[in-house]
Amino acid sequence: MGGGGQQTESSEPAKGDGVGPGGGRGGSAVYTWEEVQKHCHRGDQWLVIDRKVYNITQWAKRHPGGIRVISHFAGEDATEAFVAFHPDPNFVRKFLKPLLIGELAPTEPSQDQGKNAVLVQDFQALRDRLEREGLLRARPLFFSLYLGHILLLEALALGLLWVWGTSWSLTLLCSLMLATSQAQAGWLQHDYGHLSVCKKSSWNHVLHKFVIGHLKGASANWWNHRHFQHHAKPNVFSKDPDVNSLHVFVLGDKQPVEYGIKKLKYMPYHHQHQYFFLIGPPLLIPVYFHIQILRTMFLRQDWVDLAWSMSFYLRFFCCYYPFFGFFGSVALISFVRFLESHWFVWVTQMNHLPMEIDHERHQDWLTMQLSATCNIEQSTFNDWFSGHLNFQIEHHLFPTMPRHNYHLVAPLVRALCEKHGVPYQVKTLQKGMTDVVRSLKKSGDLWLDAYLHK
């Protein structure tokens, strides 16, 4: 973080603190939670980190992670999110200093919104333990081997065509191998994206650009700004873009009823568990994501990411044009995206869609993440198939943790959840997938009941 925030006219310190208007500019003012919570609007945003109060109104526009993710914590305690997202908090804190306007009054609790202080402290103690044991540090060899197997799949797919020609069977096999490499590259760029937070010159940041840009044809900045919102407020309407279904689906238990009461019928929602198969998995990556990525790069004038993205398509057409021609190559990449999209949707949705989807409830980090995520049973296949996102709980609690350590941390997280009565769900791969359809049907039925009878 960086830049200087200034106190707005409404930023008066709490009554009785002996500081006049504007006195918080040097960080000497004290505030109550009630005062902080008033500053949660687009043009007036404060947040609290480790009991320090910061005015982020101007800085939010320059936040490297995007304006939205930091604005989601306006008027709130952002301590747990700040620690979770920044691998090197000390590096970031120096940029926070100009934004400091004061601190919480000594009589105020450290947690806002009535959060469980003991649970918050126990979770922080667990994180401290993991840091001491080195479980938040990545092993470059693991990711090097993983990248190697992706490049090998790409090379084998092209090699088959060079050696054996373009029969239908070999073309289908080539497509499957390319879709596999694309899916696995998706999980790998996901790793690099989390590991490169606030370390723009690190090796993993450059590799993130390479994997998502050159190997997948997408945008690193687009992914970061979108995905970090998901982690900050998972399954929270208006804050998690992954549950912004653009009126195509109604999700959870509350949104369907709200739509039904208002007599909103953009789609026949009581059939959404059926049309999901037609417009969900097949179209998310080939259509929606591609339009969104291109639109974002041009609107933000993100020419670096655009160049990385174009390098993918240049390489792809150079490799496959000799075999399929221009239109044949377009058909090939479209089919590969079609297959990849199915893989991506099922892996990402089985951990979240059947879970609680609601409006903002101001929960502590552990409770919020566990209510929105579940795990899929561990196996060699499940680990590879999901890019270790079968450990979605551990990934959401510690987003900068390298995936090869999830299985070591899972028993500790489960024990902490049992201590505090927080549900820790683990499903089979089959149940995780079928629950996606069941949750859509349940939500559709709730909508129909509310639409017809309320």
TrEMBL record:
GO biological process: unsaturated fatty acid biosynthetic process
Residue span(s) of domain Cytochrome b5 heme-binding: 28-105
Domain of life: Eukaryota
MF terms (GO), sorted A to Z: oxidoreductase activity, acting on paired donors, with oxidation of a pair of donors resulting in the reduction of molecular oxygen to two molecules of water
Transmembrane portions of the chain: 141-164, 275-293, 313-336
CDD domains, A to Z: Delta6-FADS-like
Membrane topology label: Multi-pass membrane protein
Entries under PROSITE patterns matching the protein: CYTOCHROME_B5_2
Record's keyword annotation contains Oxidoreductase: yes
UniProt-annotated location(s): Membrane
UniProt pathway annotation: Lipid metabolism; polyunsaturated fatty acid biosynthesis
Regions of compositional bias (Gly residues) in chain numbering: 17-27
Major localisation: membrane
UniProt KW Transmembrane keyword: yes
GO CC term, one of those recorded: membrane
Alphabetized UniProt keyword annotations: Fatty acid biosynthesis, Fatty acid metabolism, Lipid biosynthesis, Lipid metabolism, Membrane, Oxidoreductase, Transmembrane, Transmembrane helix
Span list, region Disordered: 1-28
PANTHER family the record matches: ACYL-COA 6-DESATURASE (PTHR19353:SF12), FATTY ACID DESATURASE 2 (PTHR19353)
Family membership: Belongs to the fatty acid desaturase type 1 family.
Name of the protein: Fatty acid desaturase 2
Source organism per UniProt: Oncorhynchus mykiss
Taxonomic placement: Eukaryota, Metazoa, Chordata, Craniata, Vertebrata
